[in-house]
Hints:
alpha/beta; Rossmann fold; Urocanase fold; nine-stranded mixed sheet; six-stranded parallel sheet; 17 strands
Amino acid sequence: MSNNFHKSKYRNFAILNTHLNSMQKISDFKKSILDGIPKEIPIKNDYDTSLNRAPIRKKILNSNEKKLALKNALRYFPKDMHVDLAREFLEELDRYGRIYMYRFKPTYEIKARNINEFPFKSKEAAAIQLMLSNNLDNAIAQHPNELITYGGNGSVFQNWAQYLLCMQYLAKMNDEQTLVIYSGHPMGLFPSSKNAPRVVVTNGMMIPNYSKPDDWEKFNALGVTQYGQMTAGSFMYIGPQGIVHGTTITILNAARKIDKKAADLKGKIFVTSGLGGMSGAQPKAAVISKGICIVAEINKKATQKRHEQGWVDLVFDDLDLLIDRAIQAKQKNEAISLAYNGHIVDLWEKIIERNLKVDIGSDQTSLHNPWAGGYYPQGMDYSEANKLMVENPSLFKKKVQETLRNHVKAINILSDKGMYFFDYGNAFLLESKRAGADILNKDGNFKFQSYVQDIMGPMCFDYGFGPFRWVCSSNNEKDLDITDKIAFDVLSKLNDNSTDEIKLQMQDNINWIKDAKSNKLVVGSQARILYADSNGRIEIALAFNKAIRENIISEPIILGRDHHDVSGTDSPYRETSNIYDGSQFTADMAIQNVIGDSFRGATWVSIHNGGGVGWGEVINGGFGMVIDGSEEADQKIKNMLFWDVNNGIARRNWARNKEANFAIKEAMKINKNLDVFLPNIADDESFENLNF
């Protein structure tokens, strides 16, 4: 026999062996999920120190409340484990301020997989397992061991027992059951129907008088509520790509605020802060927009992570060297991102000292969470600040507020020189005001606009444009490539007949999807995002469903969106900050949205207290929808996506937003079953003879 024959034989054997090992791993993975919470206490693994650890939470419970927290945690385990686990959980509570149940984190790798690798009776439930797993992927989650996806406290679950139980329930459930999840706790499977949501999620639905920041600290420590942000607690996070797109659209339109004809950010400098969680998207978005981004981050691990991902080009410890490089980039019209390992206020002050012209400024630190790791004092390194946060929280707060006052002082100086500054919806304006910073005009209004007030609200949300996203459940890049092509073709055709009011938005998103693959945006699941209106979302989704039906796309697609959208979120300091009739402080829209989605075809729905602007400051509603190529999916797409967008446009129209008034009239032309009451506009002349 020839030598080649033997080589071929061994090669085939190696391939077969690899395949069998892979199949065994999948089998073991499925069994682990089906086993749920272990019947015996598992071996404790060492904490992975390469991962970002969540800040130590406020020690807020008294002795009796600590005992209650232990009783609550031990509900997940049989009585013979209680003595040992009580000791361990109390240690976690005393040390970290929370009971995470580190010991019960599974040993298998948590990540997005092909949908068929998950154990399931309902394929829709398997899709939810996929999304849930993606949220907790080490490459995606901000604090994976603490089950926090982004924003410093955006939790998927409160503890690892909840994760295990939820995955087990999803594996067991059929298409006539609904899993109910209360703030991370899977309450159980309830009889429903095939057309009902497979999962209903609520997070942090506190009684209004118990929705202050310390209420979250207390009740989260007790293990009875959590801060799900939105896409964290509803399992719909797709990694930083989502915020990259939102940031790209935002800064493109910010550039148009200073130059109406700007097609991009070429030659312009954008300065901001924050590289942890969602804010890691900023430098990537600026480079996509052909601009120069300078970003400060105090946590070196976060900077390192973004640098390794290729989302930050160069990292500096020396501010003068950074400024020199920025000047060079401006002279050459380079598209580049420069990160500073240090405090943002130091960066701003150096920019003033060096007289560097900044075109656009913002901030994306997690100021919705200012006292627990969302923002750090100037003049202290990261570890010192984290220590002070725990040992002397009142002094930490004092130093944070002092820093915010310096922060605003620097921004005011540069704004007076022509910089366009906007609040990025992270509670920067709000917390600066609370800190006593020089942030208000003489009339009591903020000196600077929220990006929603000035940019995203009137330019996008009022017209129905928002962050439509999808995930290929095959986890196959080829399927994602096909969806990119489909979305590009659909948007291009729609653009041919677009009104002048939306032409610009359409073109920005056509450009985005055309370059999406080359910009290497995927982290975790094979997912994509773009801004589209109701018509765009429906037409793209129908085209996807047709491609699945014709086996052009190999497995179902999961549709969803961010909370940065038209309808799903009531937030007076962000998503609904361009509502001025007083209803910006109400939450009817978000609640109506979720209820409406649930009976129009959503696979799962979620409602949350909190989001990027903070606990008690916002109500967020979200959904996920699995489309499988069926005619039923076609109908769900038409019904649910139309409602999910136009609910918000109708409310914005009622608030007298002229762009929304235009958009809802257009929607009524498209669907004759839509009949929305239009506001009658009163002008000031009507009140001339009245005394107020």
